TrEMBL record:
<comment type="pathway">
    <text>Bacterial outer membrane biogenesis; LPS lipid A biosynthesis.</text>
</comment>
<keyword id="KW-0444">Lipid biosynthesis</keyword>
<dbReference type="GO" id="GO:0016020">
    <property type="term" value="C:membrane"/>
</dbReference>
<comment type="subunit">
    <text>Homotrimer.</text>
</comment>
<protein>
    <recommendedName>
        <fullName>UDP-3-O-acylglucosamine N-acyltransferase</fullName>
        <ecNumber>2.3.1.191</ecNumber>
    </recommendedName>
</protein>
<dbReference type="InterPro" id="IPR020573">
    <property type="entry name" value="UDP_GlcNAc_AcTrfase_non-rep"/>
</dbReference>
<dbReference type="Pfam" id="PF04613">
    <property type="entry name" value="LpxD"/>
</dbReference>
<keyword id="KW-0443">Lipid metabolism</keyword>
<dbReference type="GO" id="GO:0016410">
    <property type="term" value="F:N-acyltransferase activity"/>
</dbReference>
<dbReference type="InterPro" id="IPR007691">
    <property type="entry name" value="LpxD"/>
</dbReference>
<keyword id="KW-0441">Lipid A biosynthesis</keyword>
<keyword id="KW-0012">Acyltransferase</keyword>
<dbReference type="GO" id="GO:0009245">
    <property type="term" value="P:lipid A biosynthetic process"/>
</dbReference>
<keyword id="KW-0677">Repeat</keyword>
<dbReference type="InterPro" id="IPR011004">
    <property type="entry name" value="Trimer_LpxA-like_sf"/>
</dbReference>
<dbReference type="GO" id="GO:0103118">
    <property type="term" value="F:UDP-3-O-[(3R)-3-hydroxyacyl]-glucosamine N-acyltransferase activity"/>
</dbReference>
<comment type="similarity">
    <text>Belongs to the transferase hexapeptide repeat family. LpxD subfamily.</text>
</comment>
């Protein structure tokens, strides 16, 4: 797939400095640019590479003025980073613009779907499933009974969507995701054996939710596990039954959230964070990587550590943590002196 500088400038509403007919067919970092590639310059510390890059086209800010000769054709835009991201999104939409139903695949007679959908080979669509317009379901996906998938959602190969799950508009569900598996619900009987508690609820993803590869979101025991509008979940995250994650919250890889915890809006949670069950995490909370959350958190707090506490207090305490052997030695010497003077 090739694009000319003229075509790219049209998409980005940019100005061309150089050859408008030069073509590109791949993307590259500016320091690794080769002929036929497209790159961008946004961070000033990479400016030197624009004079040596072999990339055919480079997207730059309108304020950029070269101080030496350059070979690459420039496309000047208001914000090079945002424009490059916009171009990546456009490229993906063109690259992934598949339509039609491949065979072999199974679609239950009671399932319904709208226009411009794509269903990849070896996909299973269960009874009473409702699929909106421009939905793309890649090969080897399982869609259980009574699932709803709204317009523009993409489900990549190998994802599993259990029965009764509701997926909103323009969601992205990556490979290996499991939505709606049973929550971890067991209760001991009189013999100490653990008996399964039926998980009869579902999972709800609101609009514009992204779910990373191999992330699992369990169905509720009763009611719904809810991932609200604009939430972004990284790879390999575990969300337990009846969890509620607020709008525009972002969670990094390998984090686990235990059952019935409610996380507020606009939170940022680092990788490998553990969050206990039945907690309330406020809005705007920041949690540093590898922290452990075992109690409720107020709005706009920043936490670190396990068990976690205020980020500023943690940094102050760390000075003492790393010097603890020296501090203990000093205390022992003081105690000896006191004992010697008694």
């Amino acid at each position: 797939m090739k694009f000319t500088a003229q075509q790219i400038a049209g998409i980005l509403e940019g100005d061309i400095v150089g050859n408008p007919d030069v073509e590109v067919s791949k993307l590259s970092k500016i320091e690794e640019g080769t002929e036929g590639s497209l790159t961008f310059l946004a961070n000033p510390k990479y400016t030197s590479y624009i004079y040596t890059t072999k990339a055919s086209i480079t997207i730059v800010n309108k304020s950029f003025e070269p101080k030496n000769d350059i070979e690459t054709t420039l496309i000047k835009v208001e914000d090079a980073y945002k424009s490059f991201s916009q171009l990546l999104e456009y490229y993906n939409s063109v690259k992934n613009n598949k339509v039609g139903i491949e065979q072999p695949s199974f679609i239950a007679e009671s399932a319904t779907y709208k226009d411009n959908i794509y269903i990849g080979a070896f996909t299973y669509i269960g009874a009473n499933v409702k699929i909106g317009e421009n939905v793309k379901i890649y090969p080897n996906v399982y869609i259980g009974d009574n699932v709803t998938i709204d317009d523009g959602t993409v489900i990549f190969a190998g994802a599993k969507v259990y029965s009764d799950t509701i997926i909103g508009k323009s969601c992205v569900i990556n490979s290996g995701v499991v939505l709606g598996a049973d929550g971890f619900g067991f209760t001991p009987n009189e013999n100490g054996e653990y008996i399964k508690v039926p998980q009869t609820g579902n999972v709800v993803l609101e609009d514009f939710v992204d779910i990373g590869a191999a992330t699992t979101i369990d169905r509720a025991t009763l009611g719904s596990t809810i991932i609200r509008r604009g939430v972004k979940l990284d790879n390999q995250i575990q969300i337990a039954h009846n969890v509620d994650i607020g709008k525009n919250t972002v969670i990094a890889a390998q984090t686990g959230v235990a059952g019935s915890t409610k996380i507020g809006e606009n939170c940022i949670i680092g990788g490998q964070v553990g969050i206990a069950g039945h907690l309330i995490i406020g809005n705007g909370v920041r949690v540093q990587a590898q922290s452990g959350i075992g109690k409720n958190v107020k709005d706009n707090e920043t936490l670190q550590g396990s068990p976690s506490f205020n980020y500023g207090d943690w940094n102050k305490s760390y000075v003492y943590f790393k010097n603890l052997p020296k501090i203990v030695k000093n205390i022992s010497e003081i105690e000896k002196k006191i004992d010697g003077n008694s």
